[in-house]
Amino acid sequence: MPKRLWRQIAIVLVCTFLSGLAVSRGVPVLTAMIAVSVAGLFCVMAMAVLVPLPDLNAPQRNSDASPLPSDIDRHLLEQIPSPLFLLDLRGRVAYSNAAARAMLPRLETGQHYANLFRSPGFLDGVSRIIEGAPAHTVSFAAAYGGVENHIAAEMRRLDATDELGDGPYVLIQLSDQTERMATDRMRTDFIANASHELRTPLASIIGYIETLQGHARDDAEARVHFLNTMSQQASRMQRLVEDLMSLSRIEMNAHTAPTTQCNLTDIVREVSDGIRPLAERRDATLDIDVEFEESAQVTADRDQLGQVFTNLIENALKYGGTGGTVHVSISPEDSRFPGMIGVSIKDNGPGIPRQHLHRLTERFYRVNAKQSKEQGGTGLGLAIVKHILARHAGELDIASVLEEGSTFTVWLPLRKLS
């Protein structure tokens, strides 16, 4: 295969990768196109300098010559993070880069494409490209690595031949869309759930307003009852909107690591003092067994960690049962969380069935929807906790025994004291 063709492939792939990366990072499409065009021009200029022009007086390659790219082109293609490979018109693999071989360990030169993926969509797409169809992308499901994944295969025909007369070739570039599709599905579910959560109290408020405008207009007792209920529903909507906004802010800063040095015991004690009135209203005992420890230093967003412990302690008071006890303490070291400090919030409530534990941090997931709404819950509290801890490189460990209670332990990396 001629060096010119390999240079074309390399330039196309680099530009494709750069444009996709730019758009995924939020760069406007027009700006990304201009930047990538400039990058492509530099690639062309670099290739022209790095790869010498052929010597017309040099002897031609013999029939044993290799169709592989030059060392420069090959090195460039090997660095492309997207899996890609070339097929000849017999449908056999002529070349594959490192990412493709990592994705498909059984991929070998000379292997027929029908042995790569069994998806009818993939097989039909390659067949049409070989027959001369224009470039297109095929999406399909494929099992590799022990799980089912969603793959997009961008296919295009390269109408060029090498010195041996082989060609044209088919270039196939793969991208794993599994995570993106899961994110899209979560976003769709989130919007649907948020809409439902807002629609219910809103419909209730509208119904009461219509009643007050109608036959209950002059009923003072009904008016007081309806207004109180409307106030409760409005407060529920307000809490939901505040949690949605809080979750949005947390996700916006998810990739920005906190930098403030904080003492974890200070944060826990401060939050606990602020929640004592809630414990008194519920006739519950809030036992804070957290003494100041100079060594309990963490790198954190103080306000966000305060929100974590507020949510967890309030949940323990609300769902641990009236008259119960909530115990907050520093956890002993755990080999599962090396180099971390733990804070446990334990209640003596009814406990949580095992099948619910792994889903507790999902948005809008409730073990008992009716009880949650009665307690003023939005279904987002533990989701907020999970996202905050993820930003802090922390963990949330949940343990529960029916009729004995639940323990939520927050683990955070300790800052090493100099």
From TrEMBL:
Domain Histidine kinase as annotated: residue spans: 193-416
EC number: 2.7.13.3
Broadest EC class assigned to this enzyme: transferase
Cell compartment(s), UniProt: Cell membrane
Predominant subcellular localization, coarse grouping: membrane
Cellular component per GO, a single term: plasma membrane
PROSITE patterns (UniProt xref): HIS_KIN, PAS
GO MF, one example: phosphorelay sensor kinase activity
Domain PAS span(s) in chain numbering: 74-104
Catalytic activity: ATP + protein L-histidine = ADP + protein N-phospho-L-histidine
Signal peptide: none
Transmembrane segments: 34-53
Keywords: ATP-binding, Cell membrane, Kinase, Membrane, Nucleotide-binding, Phosphoprotein, Transferase, Transmembrane, Transmembrane helix, Two-component regulatory system
InterPro entries per the UniProt record, alphabetical: BphY/WalK/GraS-like, HATPase_C_sf, HATPase_dom, His_kinase_dom, HisK_dim/P_dom, HisK_dim/P_sf, PAS, Sig_transdc_His_kin-like_C
GO biological process, one term: cellular response to phosphate starvation
Full protein name: histidine kinase
